[in-house]
Amino acid sequence: MSEKRVTFASKIGVVAAAAGSAVGLGNIWRFPSQAADGGGAIFILVYIGCILFFGIPLMVSEFMVGRASRSNTAGAYHKLAPGTQWKWVGRLGVLTGFVIMGFYMVVCGWTLIYIFQSISGHLAGVTDFSSNFIDLQTNPAKQIVWMTIFTLLTAFFILSGVKKGIEQSAKILMPLLFLLLIVLAIRSITLDGAAEGIRFLFKPDMSHVKPTLFLDAMGQAFFSLSLGMGCMITYGSYFNKRTPLVKTAIQVSMLDTLVAVLSGVVIFPAAFALTANPGTIVGELVAGGPGLLFITLPELFNQMPGSMIWSTLFFCLLALAALTSTISLMEVVTLYIHEEYRVSRKNSTLIVTAGVIILGIFASFSASFFNLLDVASAKFMLPIGGFFISLFVGWHLDRKLVYAQLTNERTLKFGIGFLRVYIFLLRYVVPTAVLAIFIYGLRA
Ligand code: TRP
Question: What pTM did the predictor assign?
Fold first, then answer.
């Protein structure tokens, strides 16, 4: 552990790598189906509230814990709070990483399958996209093969090193994905009948409010920003001493939210415009569940000239966005095993890869196991992790250290008032709100 730790090479690299972790299937696949389930605009409003009140302060906290300790998620607590039980928060985070990868890799496999269905021209000939997706969902063998391939691909990047693997890929691919989403959004909102979809997305309708709305939105916020398991602790540990934590957290959160909302602007107008029977659309959206993206988008592509090219491009970029997220997830768990148990980086990667594939096999066979992993991580483990991380920074960390981290040793201009507000948020507001939402959501 005494070897000099690598740091990210450039400023843009820092934002790109953290944004690469945040932006992934959570934004483009999970967000639209959660938003559909949560009533569109209402969900989005609550979601944005969660980003502002919990997301950004927590992301700053994770960065801080990482950079102050220069260590993996669990090691961070050993260093900053030696001899205490805080290490369990780190261990919970590592476990959460496993659980997330268990179902996330399956969806990554779907993106690969859709790449091949695009290239082969299969998608261009499909007329019923729901049954196309259901065929896939009920074919465990196929899912297992592609899930395994994606997991191995991630492992390859983990082994090839931090800078080359994570930083370079993120820097080029994220902007490209963003551009493509803008093009698709324009196509989607100019379809006949798209207006209903826009309304669903931006006009709050109280009749859709569900008791679990807050927990769902909060879970999605944690999931999408990669918060609550120490992923951003691990990335923070690679930051250099000039990286501005608050600014980076704001930039990453804004980018991430923009991509999520943009995905909504692509999916919902298209879903409303292209549905056969508009009367039942909301029910259909919700029933589409985890398949929403994989059902609606190919349908949208088929409305465009050169559908094969669009869908190939889209699913390739989606797979790459997912890859920068799976790299971050696997990095957390691998670094933990590597640094805490003194296993070589290579063996540690192998252990993690095997574990993830085993979980992924179960998730491929059983949709309810898949859902269990999804719900357990997003609605339980991440909020619990976030709760403790905010307590850790708010109550345990020395204020001087927090201030030094926030201001990069007083080279950034944040007054003491800012520190007070930040500490107040982490001591009282974030933990209470997270706990309240959690308990309320469970009772609902
Ligand atoms: N945020 C990623 C996404 O939206 C997924 C992810 C990567 C993640 N690392 C994480 C989620 C850590 C929770 C915690 O797709």
Answer: 0.94
